[in-house]
Structure formats: structure tokens, C-alpha cells
Amino acid sequence: MSARELGLPERLTRHDDLPPEVTIWEVGPRDGLQNEADTVPVDVKLEFLDRLANAGLTTLEATSFVHPKWVPQLADAEELLSRLDRRAGVRYPVLVPNARGLDRAVDAGIVDVAVFASATESFARRNLNSTYGDQFAMFEPVVARARDEGMAVRGYLSMCFGDPWEGVVDPDRVVAAGRRLLDAGCWQLSLGDTVGVATPGQVDRLVDAFAAAGVGVDALAVHFHDTYGQALSNTLAALRRGVSTVDSSAGGLGGCPYAESATGNLATEDLVWMLDGLGVQHGADLDALVITSTWMAEQLGRPSPSRVVSALAG
Ligand code: HMG
Ligand code: MG
């Protein structure tokens, strides 16, 4: 008999230290597909987005308006968005690094964008061809203009815990960088563990450091990659601190082409299994997600790294 037929996971009454509801910020179509060796055909991406919306997810990070030579896997952003059936009640944020990216997002009729900074010098240079300081000069006018256009702008911050070139990242440095994005006008800051090295104690410490600087959990989201198997533990630590937006990718796809040691994001299915057990609402249909990720794994020609997908699909 399957785990689901046996009524698993057992759904406990939510403990008071957890948020009643979590927003799942699904990054599979963007973070999940930006690192594929072979570019995924646009028809497959469209079906992926459709299936994710059918599975009840309401925030689907669709693609990026970055330089097509830097991320050829997402060079089809215009075609994808022109053909996408944008559902009522679903948000389709996209990444924009600079003024040119924002122009492209405006032309595509996008209302949710995200800029993405680095807490470290090394990754700013590699990912953005910029210094740590200059990245803010690039983003600040983009955020201001996007807001003038009526867009909501999220701020990502990468390398919030450890960096493959610089080692452990000082929380004060992360808070200073995060404040720059929030002060520029980002409504939310997503704290990225780009290479998946963080552990839960670091998550507690960083959320505390933001609180000490006057940034509450309402302004924070978490974005864990699962390289060292810590993503779900780190997520639970963040939930216990009151963070209620969690980035994840269906099937655990993901990685960053400019940080080779990055592997997939926290799998949406693994997150949903845990939230179900904890009695935290999320609005997603786990069975539909597992079917979607099994289908996507067939398209990509390799099994999903998600433990929950492999357990339930088997
Ligand atoms: P650059 O080469 O320094 O750009 O790249 P530039 O400003 O010097 O411009 C050079 C040419 O590119 C110009 O064309 C521009 O128009 C064009 P020319 O005048 O020579 O013909 N150009 C563009 N074309 C289309 N769209 C654009 C664009 N920008 C310039 N947006 C740049 C600088 C920032 C553009 C580049 O470094 C870039 O695209 N980087 C993006 C890298 C990326 O996407 N990384 C993955 C996403 S971040 C991530 O995954 C982390 C995250 O998941 C959180 C976490 O896990 O930590 C978010
Ligand atoms: Mg990422």
C-alpha cells in the first residue's frame, strides 16, 4: 500500500511557532532550467508552467531577461511569455538584471520582476560582470523605474551563508547588502544559499541579524539549494522564525551556471510533504506536483533528485 493510501504524512495540528500559511515561490521554470546542459524546448517549458499552475501553485517564476549569451537556456523569454496562458490568480515574476532587462520585461507586459544581487564580491563579478558596489548602481535605477511602471520588485541576495571563493559570509555583510535592496524599493528580500552549504544555526543567526537591523520576517523569503542536503532543515529553521515565503523548485531542479558547485533547489514536493505533516497551509496539490516532476524528468532524461518524488512516483 502506498504512503498516501496509508494516510501519510500524519497531519499534526500546527505548532504555534510556525506560520499558518506558506507562500511557495516556485522557481523551477527559471532557476530549475537555467542550468540545463541542453536548452529545454519552449513547448516543454510552457507545458511545465501550465502543469504547475494546475497543481495549485500561485507564484511561478517564469524566466529571466538576462543577457542571452550569459544564459542561453532562457534566451527564449520573449517567445515563452508571448505564448504563455497567464492564469488569473497566478503571478509570473521574471528576473531582470539591468535597464535592458527591464525594457524587455515592460514590452512583455510583466508586472512582477526581481533583481538579484550578491553578498560577495566574487559572485558579483562572476554572475553580473560587476563589482559588489557597482551592482547596486545597476539595480537602484531599475527598481525605481520598475516601481514607476507599477511593478512589484523582489530582491534576491546570493551567497548569504557561504561562498565557494570567499568561504563563510559574515551576516553583517549580508544585512548591509539586503538593506540596500530593501531601501531601493524591493518589497521582499529572498536570502539565497546559492551553493547549498548553510546549516540551520546560520539561518537563525541571519534572521536575528536582520531583525536587529530593523528588518522583520515579513520582508524576508528563503531560497535554499540542496547541495549538502540541508535545504529542508534550513527551511524549518526559517519557518520557526516566522518566515512565510519559501522558494523551491518542482522536482528539485536547479543550479546556477556561474556557481558550478550549486545543485538543485529545495524540491517543492519535499517542502509540501513537510508542510502537510506540520499542518501548515500552502495550497499545492502534491500528487499533481509529483506527476509533473515525473513528466519533467522524462523530458530531461534523468530522474528527479527529489526524495518525495522518487518515493511517491515509484
Ligand atoms: P555585460 O556583458 O557586462 O553587459 O553583462 P553590458 O551591460 O556590458 O552589455 C553588453 C551587451 O549586452 C549590450 O549589447 C547590451 O545591450 C546587451 P551591445 O550594445 O553590445 O549590442 N545586454 C542585454 N541584452 C539582453 N538582455 C539584457 C542585456 N543586458 C545587456 N538584460 C549582465 C551584464 C548583467 C547583463 C550579465 O552579466 C547577465 O546577464 N548576467 C545574468 C547571469 C544570470 O542570469 N545568472 C543566474 C541568475 S542568478 C541566480 O541564479 C541566483 C538566484 O537563484 C539566488 C541564489 O540561488 O542565490 C537568484
Ligand atoms: Mg538559486
Average pLDDT, all residues: 96
- Fourth CATH level, the homologous superfamily: Aldolase class I
- Label the overall shape: globular
- Rg, nearest Å: 18 Å
Please bin the fraction of helical residues: 40-55%
Number of domains: 1
Notes on the structure:
This protein has 314 residues and is of the alpha/beta class. It has one domain: Aldolase class I (TIM Barrel). Helix content is 41%, strand content 13%. It has twelve helices and ten strands. It has helices at 28-32, 42-54, 77-83, 99-107, 121-128, 132-148, 171-184, 200-212, 231-240, 268-278, 286-300, 307-313, and strands at residues 23-26, 63-64, 94-95, 112-118, 152-158, 162-163, 167-168, 188-193, 220-224, 245-248. An eight-stranded parallel β-sheet has the order 1-10-9-8-5-4-3-2. The longest helix has 17 residues, at 132-148. The mean pLDDT is 96. The structure holds 3-hydroxy-3-methylglutaryl-coenzyme A (HMG) and magnesium ion. 3-hydroxy-3-methylglutaryl-coenzyme A (HMG) binds at residues 31, 34, 64-67, 70-71, 95, 97-98, 100-101, 104, 116, 127-129, 156, 158, 192, 194, 223, 225, 256, 258. This is Hydroxymethylglutaryl-CoA lyase.
Looking at this protein, list some descriptive labels:
314 residues; alpha/beta; TIM Barrel; eight-stranded parallel β-sheet; two-stranded antiparallel ribbon; 10 strands; 41% helix; binds 3-hydroxy-3-methylglutaryl-coenzyme A; binds magnesium ion; Hydroxymethylglutaryl-CoA lyase; PYR_CT; Aldolase_TIM
